[in-house]
Specification:
Layout lengths: L1 H19 L16 H11 L2 H45 L10 E3 L2 E10 L1 H9 L6 E3 L5 H11 L8 E6 L10 E3 L23 E7 L2 E7 L6 E7 L2
Antiparallel strand pairs: 1-2, 2-8, 3-8, 4-5, 4-6, 6-7
Amino acid sequence: MYHGCMRSLCGVWVAAALAALPACGFNPAGGDDDGTVEDAAADADEGDGANGGDAADVDAAMVDAAMTDARMIDARMVDAAMIDARVIDAAMIDARPPCPAAYDVQFQGSNYRFEAVAQVWQVAAVDCDGDLPGRTHLATFEVASEIDGAISAVNPGNSAEPLVGASCSAIDCSAMNAWAWVTGSTVSTMIWEPGQPDNGATEKAGAAIRDMGTWKLRNVTTSLTTRPYICECDP
């Protein structure tokens, strides 16, 4: 009887103690949490790997930033390289060799030389071309004022009929539009002496003649007529 009562009382005490534990802040199933909403949220944060996710986001942002910086650096390097290339190109243009010293007459940006030793047109053309290949040639004139001004500046003498860089390769060279300068441009109709060009079957080279105080163009025989000539050096 006594032992049975003691067992009953002990059972009551144990049950009461277990019932009181949560009120004291002890949760056998959940560790040391007190069951509050804050603890539940903390438990959720501790178990969901959120901190790892945040680190991955930070790493990704750093990689993106690094790639962006790399692209900006590459772009700046490309821009700098292009600028350097343009500067080099400009320097190369500025560094072009000057016209030969014999080209001592200047007119409207070009330099000219007068050769008094008479030659046929083909020989004169080769001589001019060889002074500074790509820059020198028999003289060419785009407009009437240019032919008169340049030849007057060269001053070959009023009676001279110097060869210049006009020629014709057509069967009949009596038509003005069949003539071209050695540089490829068409000879202006305003440059010709009145009545020229003529004798289109035989006279296929250009020469300058003084006509009424102004220098004009006329045609002469290419391979038979020897005359002094004027060479030009482009800027």
